[in-house]
């Protein structure tokens, strides 16, 4: 069902306004402490905002705007929460754990157990029905917890980093199950993993310091990040600059002519450039002046060169990631050896405007 939440929790620095359409799965991303879990807790009824309101499928969950506030308690909200830890009842077996949801909303024991069997089959856990939670692996327990959440037939499923506590081997199966069960379902999933956003969500929201700062389809948000957090999730360099004489001017360099006919923003408008570290070439320090254009740069085309100091070197898959001038450049180990790179050394970076995504801030 559709959700609208607008709430402020000053003690946690959270002030959000978000909507989910009916049947939409939304991923909520953001750095540690951004307020993601607080948003989930607000919807679930576990945190009381100072002001705000929330509606799920047209039904008020809370409304603290007027003098006579409305507050629906957690167990009557029609939401189910799957957290990092499965939190199964230790004294009940798996089947009874899953049947607990329908039982608590008034189903007969027989109907609740039939629902449990159906949902256990749905998460490939039918064979675990008679086990106690203590006899399950972490991955199995989380699948059972998912079945329990779904068996409650929630109008909105809330998932707060549901795979964060799993062993790496258990994650792919859980992700496949989530993909299957979240399809067409109203759900909000908090995650740190960009793959979850890409595979599970119709749309992503990025939170920072208690506010939602980016929103859109995962592919768009990741191609055109608006914050360093999202850029690093997407594995991109992000540089802020301004439009000047048709060019993009950042602190260290200028990309002439790239904004000659911009779709938006005039002279002095703020623009962003996002580009992959693999598109940045590294050359020995030479007689280069800031912003000088190399007409036939590596890979062809017009490149912009600028001097920068290497701050760090780190392995990046089968490449070496060079951090210099606030940017990342991924080069081959052979090239790094050829350049004899060391932190503190000056180099020349070559940027290829053709490999960049340029967009108004
Ligand atoms: N129980 C609490 N009491 C008071 N403040 C809290 C409580 N839980 C979290 N906070 C604070 O509220 C802010 C938002 O925290 P929240 O847990 O919602 O962030 P998050 O984005 O989920 O972080 P993480 O990714 O680390 O889980 C943080 O400043 C945090 O320190």
UniProtKB/TrEMBL annotation:
SUPFAM superfamilies: MOP-like, P-loop containing nucleoside triphosphate hydrolases. Residues 3-234 form the ABC transporter domain. One of its GO terms (molecular function) is ATP hydrolysis activity. The keyword Glycoprotein does not apply. PROSITE patterns: ABC_TRANSPORTER_1 (PS00211), ABC_TRANSPORTER_2 (PS50893). Signal peptide: none annotated. InterPro entries: AAA+_ATPase, ABC_SmlMolc_Importer, ABC_transporter-like_ATP-bd, ABC_transporter-like_CS, Mo/tungstate-bd_C_term_dom, P-loop_NTPase, Transp-assoc_OB_typ1. The keyword Nucleotide-binding applies. It comes from Arthrobacter caoxuetaonis. Gene3D superfamilies: P-loop containing nucleotide triphosphate hydrolases (3.40.50.300). Keywords: ATP-binding, Nucleotide-binding, Transport. It comes from the Bacteria. Pfam families: ABC_tran (PF00005), TOBE (PF03459). This is ABC transporter ATP-binding protein.
């Amino acid at each position: 069902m559709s959700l609208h939440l607008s709430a402020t929790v000053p003690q946690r620095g959270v002030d959000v306004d978000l909507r989910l359409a009916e049947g939409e799965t939304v991923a909520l991303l953001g750095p540690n402490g951004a307020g993601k879990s607080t948003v989930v807790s607000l919807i679930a009824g576990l945190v009381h905002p100072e002001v705000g309101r929330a509606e799920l499928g047209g039904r008020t969950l809370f409304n603290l705007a007027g003098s006579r506030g409305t507050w629906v308690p957690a167990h009557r909200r029609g939401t189910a929460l799957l957290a990092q830890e499965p939190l199964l009842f230790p004294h009940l077996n798996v089947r009874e754990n899953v049947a607990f949801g329908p039982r608590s909303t008034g189903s007969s024991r027989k109907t609740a157990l039939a629902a449990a069997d159906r949902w256990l089959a749905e998460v490939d856990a039918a064979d675990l029905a008679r086990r106690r939670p203590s006899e399950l692996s972490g991955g199995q327990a989380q699948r059972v917890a998912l079945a329990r959440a779904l068996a409650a037939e929630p109008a909105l499923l809330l998932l707060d980093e549901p795979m964060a506590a799993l062993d790496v081997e258990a994650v792919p199966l859980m992700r496949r199950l989530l993909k299957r069960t979240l399809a067409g379902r109203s759900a909000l999933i908090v995650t740190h993993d960009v793959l979850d956003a890409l595979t599970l969500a119709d749309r992503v929201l990025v939170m920072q310091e208690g506010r939602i700062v980016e929103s859109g389809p995962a592919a768009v948000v990741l191609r055109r990040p608006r914050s360093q957090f999202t850029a690093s999730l997407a594995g991109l360099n992000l540089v802020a600059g301004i439009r000047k004489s048709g060019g993009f001017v950042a602190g260290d360099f200028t990309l002439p002519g790239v904004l000659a006919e911009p779709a938006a923003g005039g002279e002095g408008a703020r623009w962003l450039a996002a580009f992959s570290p693999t598109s940045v070439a590294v050359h020995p320090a030479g007689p280069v002046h800031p912003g000088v254009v190399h007409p036939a740069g590596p890979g062809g085309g017009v490149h912009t060169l600028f001097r920068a100091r290497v701050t760090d070197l780190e392995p990046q898959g089968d490449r070496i990631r060079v951090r210099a001038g606030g940017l990342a450049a991924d080069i081959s180990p052979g090239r790094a050896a050829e350049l004899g790179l060391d932190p503190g050394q000056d180099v020349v970076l070559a940027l290829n405007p053709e490999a960049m995504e340029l967009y108004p801030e």
